From TrEMBL:
Pfam families: TPT. Residues 55-65 have a biased composition (Gly residues). The keyword Secreted does not apply. This is Sugar phosphate transporter domain-containing protein. It comes from Psophocarpus tetragonolobus. Keywords: Membrane, Transmembrane, Transmembrane helix. The chain crosses the membrane at residues 77-96, 108-133, 145-166, 172-192, 199-216, 222-239, 260-278, 298-318, 325-346, 352-369. The keyword Transmembrane helix applies. The lineage of its organism: Eukaryota, Viridiplantae, Streptophyta, Embryophyta, Tracheophyta. Residues 50-71 are annotated as: Disordered.
């Protein structure tokens, strides 16, 4: 009874201190529960803040990701700029050569090539020595110098031949013949190394040659001498690339294209200057006369020469920032763009047969590049 009464009083009588432990326990439980909730809320809040920061790019890794994306976008824009400059300079030098040699009355392809090589010599030196576009590579031996001189002579032959052909052929047909470079490269590579490619690779060269044959038959302004010079220039260009791979194959002699141009250009000028004076004896008189009649003559010559160097520089930079395969694909497209622009500018007549032949050649070149990539 005392126990029972005490129990009843312990529950209901507020004057008694017996029930206090019950309330204290409840308060403690409540406080403990509230405290743990507050701790969880704070941790959850911190986690949510971190997640929100990452999602918004404000956190550490998110910031790095944002910076990486920004850097990637800048790199892509730079590549687009390079490709645009490469297209402009390559197509520009072809069209300017055609305009000077055929439409302007400046019929001196050897002297024009010498102007190109002079600009390449000066601008290559400035770009490498002063602007550090690439590290300068030095010539290490007499043997290496003789190899570079040989390459320079072959390079001169290819450029002079191409410029001579522009006096007699339309740019569209000139580009069609020039697209056969892979055929000559494959022939010279086999003759020099006796190394055979896969039969599929050689089969891809059939449409390359067939397209030019078809284009020749459908070319309204076909000129035999111009065709021979263009074919010779194409063969010399292919021979130079094969010869370069053979002569400068050792690690100690390898030069990147910009340093090779730096050393080849002055040699080319020394060869082309006497050749121009002997084979084009009235070049100085005619050039001065044209300069008097056309005030923009010197500006046009300078622009053409600088554009020729820009074509070489951007060719190197596009290869460096993309790949040789990308450059090959862009080169095929460049030829087609040059053909379209030249037809619009010079209004040279074209036939469906001629354009069909050129298309076949370009498709053959693309197939050749793909088979080389797959079966190398």
């Amino acid at each position: 009874m005392i126990v029972g009464g005490g129990a009843r009083v312990g529950v209901w009588n507020t004057n008694q201190r017996v029930p206090v432990p019950s309330r204290t326990y409840q308060q403690k439980v409540s406080m403990s529960t509230h405290g743990s909730y507050s701790m969880r809320s704070k941790a959850s809040f911190e986690n949510e803040a971190k997640v929100t920061g990452k999602e918004s790019g404000g956190g550490g890794s998110g910031g790095k990701s944002g910076k990486t994306m920004s850097s990637s976008s800048k790199e892509n824009l730079f590549i687009v700029f390079l490709v645009t400059l490469w297209y402009s300079s390559n197509i520009g030098v072809i069209l300017l050569n055609k305009y000077l040699l055929s439409n302007y009355g400046f019929k001196f392809p050897i002297f024009l090539t010498m102007c190109h090589m002079s600009a390449c010599a000066v601008l290559s030196y400035v770009s490498i020595v002063f602007f550090k576009v690439v590290p300068q590579q030095m010539i290490k031996s007499r043997s290496q110098f003789m190899k570079i001189a040989t390459l320079s002579l072959v390079f001169c032959a290819s450029v002079v031949g191409g410029n001579i052909s522009l006096r007699y052929l339309a740019v569209s047909f000139n580009q069609a013949v020039g697209a056969t470079t892979p055929f000559f490269t494959a022939v010279f590579a086999y003759l020099a190394t006796l190394k055979r490619e896969a039969w599929v690779t050689y089969a891809a060269l059939v449409p390359v040659v067939a397209g030019v044959v078809i284009a020749s038959g459908g070319e309204p302004g076909f000129h035999l001498f111009g065709f021979i010079m263009c074919l010779s220039a194409t063969a010399a260009r292919a021979f130079k690339s094969v010869l370069q791979g053979i002569l400068l194959s050792s690690e100690g002699e390898k030069l990147n294209s910009m340093n090779l141009l730096l050393y080849m250009s002055p040699i080319a000028v020394l060869v082309l200057l006497p050749a121009a004076l002997i084979m084009e004896p009235n070049v100085v008189d005619v050039t001065l006369t044209l300069a008097k009649d056309h005030k923009s003559m010197w500006l046009l010559l300078m622009l053409n020469s600088v554009t020729a160097y820009a074509a070489n520089l951007t060719n190197f930079l596009v290869t460096k920032h993309t790949s040789a395969l990308t450059l090959q694909v862009l080169g095929n497209a460049k030829g087609a763009v040059a053909v379209v622009i030249s037809i619009l500018l010079f209004r040279n007549p074209v036939t469906v047969l001629g354009m069909g032949g050129y298309t076949i050649t370009v498709m053959g070149v693309a197939a050749y590049g793909e088979t080389k990539r797959r079966f190398r």
